[in-house]
Write a structure and sequence with these properties.
CATH architecture of one domain: Alpha-Beta Barrel
CATH topology of one domain: TIM Barrel
Order of helices and strands: EEHEHEHHEHEHEHEEEEEH
Radius of gyration: 19 Å
Mean pLDDT: 81
Largest sheet: 8 strands, mixed
Number of helices: 8
Shape: globular
Low-confidence stretches: 1-29, 75-83
CATH class of one domain: Alpha Beta
Number of strands: 12
CATH superfamily of one domain: Glycosidases
Strand content: 15-25%
Oligomer: single chain
């Protein structure tokens, strides 16, 4: 019997809940999925700008999901709206932990949310976005909890040419660029090794989405190295974002170059390089 199960809730520091749906075969709607199994099921995919649309169903359809699936990728249908928050929890780990603890307890409370949430997988977002902030999550929140995972990310707007940035990349990345990638991923794997909490890399992109300083060749060098490294770490990820690779209104993949911040990029070629190196779905 095939059941559609809403399996995860991602707790983000900006008072935002990210819900991820997927379909799986199950004998009962309350059949629990372990974080390890779910980490494998998340695999790789795209972020989308669902919540930026006033009428999202005019832009997103079942065919889009099928097209993405044919590329051996998945689709994460939710994305932060990017608006600044005056009360960001990133600067206040104490507030982050109080809020996160309260939300986790509320979701697990049968009286408040029903009986299906005791074993629902919840994602705890890093207080500082990157894996560096993961240790700031109060261990009491996830200690002895079997159905929790952590979310973190870097390169959400792509690599940059600023030498002092942790996202710095130039040319083929030899030296600092590649080391930045290794360190970023190592911070995530170290957290899992120290705590047992598995993680999910929520968003990244190969181009410099803000400054347009990374050319196509550099974007491909970065892409190939990043995908290889995160594949070795066995961390699932989402590519930011689907609209850069797929023409939503026409329901087809981009073939012509796309100009992003003044930089002309063949996104189809970049995507081919990603697909070539990413792990195949089981």
């Amino acid at each position: 019997m095939e059941e559609k199960i809403l399996s995860t809730v991602i707790l983000l520091p900006l008072f935002f809940l990210l819900l991820v749906e997927f379909e799986t075969e199950a004998k009962a709607i309350d059949l629990p999925i372990s974080p390890k199994k779910y980490q494998d099921m998340i695999h790789t995919g795209f972020n989308t700008n669902w919540f930026k649309r006033k009428n999202p169903m005019r832009h997103y359809s079942e065919q889009i999901i099928k097209d993405v699936r044919d590329k051996e990728l998945g689709i994460d249908e939710c994305k932060k709206d990017g608006k600044p928050c005056k009360h960001s929890l990133r600067k206040r780990p104490d507030k982050y932990n109080r809020w996160t603890r309260a939300v986790v307890n509320a979701i697990r409370n049968k009286t408040l949310t029903g009986s299906n949430n005791a074993k629902r997988i919840l994602f705890l977002s890093s207080p500082e976005k990157t894996a560096v902030g993961l240790p700031k999550i109060d261990p009491e929140i996830y200690r002895n909890a079997s159905y929790l995972m952590a979310e973190w990310h870097i390169y959400a707007s792509g690599p940059v040419k600023k030498p002092t940035s942790l996202k710095y990349w130039t040319g083929n990345g030899d030296g600092v660029g590649k080391e930045n990638v290794r360190i970023a991923i190592k911070n995530g794997t170290n957290f899992t090794e120290n705590t047992g909490l598995l993680t999910y890399f929520a968003e990244w992109m190969p181009q410099d989405n803000n400054g347009g300083k990374i050319n196509e060749s550099e974007a491909i060098y970065f892409t190939r190295f990043f995908v290889k490294e995160i594949r070795k770490a066995k961390i699932p990820w989402s590519l930011n974002s689907l609209e850069k690779y797929y023409i939503m209104g026409k329901g087809k993949w981009r073939r012509r170059p796309l100009t992003i911040e003044g930089q002309q990029l063949n996104m189809s070629k970049i995507l081919d390089n990603i697909i070539e190196l990413m792990p195949k779905r089981p």
